[in-house]
Automatic annotation (TrEMBL):
Protein name in the entry: Putative allantoin permease
InterPro entries noted in UniProt: CodB, Pur-cyt_permease, Pur-cyt_permease_Fcy2/21/22
UniProt topology in membrane: Multi-pass membrane protein
Keywords on record: Membrane, Transmembrane, Transmembrane helix, Transport
Recorded family membership: Belongs to the purine-cytosine permease (2.A.39) family.
């Protein structure tokens, strides 16, 4: 093979089922570290920090410091599977759910990552609306007639997204390296500005009004769902990792650093604004509104737009790769463009919805409900049931061990459905709403149910 052919092969974007050979694993420890700092140092993290500020500073800090490391340990466990097997996260669902059964988490995954793209795009479009107001006098978000301005912002962001995923994981790696510098700059800037305006002692002592207060359990679930939302994307990247550390330790460190910092920025930004204005409204916890109220100007708004692009590059990659698990004839690059267009369409919905916050909280609840049990099942299947033995060559073999009944593992699907029902029930119980929430318990419960049922019905097939 000559040099030209080699270069062409190295830049290939692998579909969900294709195993990435070790010779083409190009993501280093530092690449992965930067990628996941950039993934979490973004608008969404900032916004969720403002939302959980409803638990007051102490509660929000506790939730951030406890809930997220648990989520990223779960992410590392699945990231390691991707590194060892070499396929995408959704392909790794086939041994437990069955070849066709894996379409269920794939469809769910497509919807959630298109949803995350829409969330970040909407927040960035708010920034664009403020910029257009300053330059052209157009109505900014929240003002009468701002619908058209928001549509312009969504269009601009969609173009930036198409550029960011133009070359698959290669362009994503470049975008993250560039973006993380500006993102960290904005984080420092806003932290300094807030603490200059509002003494830290006032931020610590502030309490939300009773009608806006958030319980610890609800805050736990909001943070858990936010962080676990990244887990279905992890193997899509760790299969390109050069070594074990790059697939496990680097994502955990990067994701926690990015999240701790920007959730903290969101928390003190929302509380600082509440102290200075006398009004706390989690609906206005988005970075653009906070930056505008703090008077940070156009440069800060431009950085917010950039942070959306860095986070959404990963969101779109994960959604696109999931599409290829549904139909291997669809090329990865084609799938990426499809999900980018779909996310742009979905972003329009919150403009006409009654509340962006309500849509956001419903979305987080959806993630916890459907994906919590899936994570419990796949971790239990790989580490405990199959003893770290997956055969990627049989991932698409109708006569192989992962075919089960017409392509579906009905036992696993049954465990998943039962776990979703249990989640709906326990999520309303005071025992969970006042403590750790329902998401982490359901991860554990689904794992136990799957382990027991696999021993009873699957016989380690």
């Amino acid at each position: 093979m000559d040099r030209k052919d080699t270069d062409k092969k190295v830049h290939k974007e692998y579909s969900a089922l294709e195993t990435v050979p070790e010779s083409e694993r190009s993501i280093s420890f530092m690449d992965m570290l930067v990628t996941w700092v950039g993934a979490n140092a973004n608008n969404g993290t900032w916004y969720v920090g403002g939302v959980v500020a409803g638990a007051a500073f102490g509660g929000a800090a506790l939730v951030t410091l406890v809930s997220n490391p648990i989520a990223y340990i779960i992410m590392a466990l699945i990231g390691f599977i991707g590194y060892k097997v070499g396929t995408s996260t959704m392909a790794l669902m086939r041994p437990s759910f069955g070849i066709k059964g894996s379409f269920i988490p794939s469809i769910l995954n497509i919807t959630q990552f298109i949803g995350w793209t829409a969330v970040n795009t909407f927040i960035a479009a708010i920034s664009i609306s403020f910029i257009l107001k300053d330059i052209f006098g157009l109505p900014a978000y929240g003002s009468s007639g701002s619908d058209k301005t928001m549509l312009i912002g969504i269009g601009v962001m969609s173009i930036l997204h198409l550029i960011s995923i133009a070359s698959g994981h290669k362009s994503v790696k470049i975008v993250e390296k560039i973006g993380v510098v500006f993102i960290l700059f904005l984080g420092i800037w806003e932290t300094v500005v807030v603490l200059k305006q509002v003494p830290f002692s006032q931020i610590i002592s502030w309490r939300p009004p009773a009608d806006k207060a958030m319980s610890i359990g609800s805050a736990f679930d909001a943070m858990a769902a936010f962080s676990l939302g990244w887990v279905p994307a992890i193997a899509d990247f760790t299969r390109y990792s050069k070594n074990r550390g790059a697939s496990t330790i680097a994502p955990v460190i990067g994701a926690n650093v990015g999240l701790f910092w920007f959730a903290f920025v969101g928390i003190i930004g929302a509380i600082g604004t509440a102290v200075t204005t006398g009004v706390y409204d989690p609906n206005n916890s988005d970075p653009s509104t906070i930056v505008s109220k703090l008077g940070l100007g156009v440069i800060a708004l431009l950085v917010i737009i950039l942070t959306s692009t860095t986070a959404n590059a990963i969101n779109l990659m994960a959604a696109g790769i999931s599409v290829t698990n549904l139909n291997k004839k669809i090329k990865s690059q084609t799938a990426l463009f499809i999900v980018t267009i779909l996310s742009a369409i979905l972003t329009i919905v919150p403009i006409y919805a009654s509340s962006f916050l309500d849509s956001f909280e419903m979305f987080l609840n959806y993630i916890g409900m459907v994906f919590g049990p899936i994570f419990g099942i796949i971790i239990t299947d790989y580490y405990l049931v199959r003893k770290k033995q997956y055969d990627a060559e049989e991932f698409d073999d109708p006569s192989g061990r992962y075919w089960y009944q017409s392509g579906f593992n009905l036992v696993t699907i049954g465990v998943w459905i039962i776990s979703v029902i249990i989640y709906i029930f326990i999520s309303k119980l005071p025992l969970f709403t006042s403590t750790i929430g329902a998401i982490y318990p359901i991860v554990l419960i689904s794992g136990i149910l799957y382990f027991a049922s696999s021993k009873m019905f699957l016989n380690n097939k």
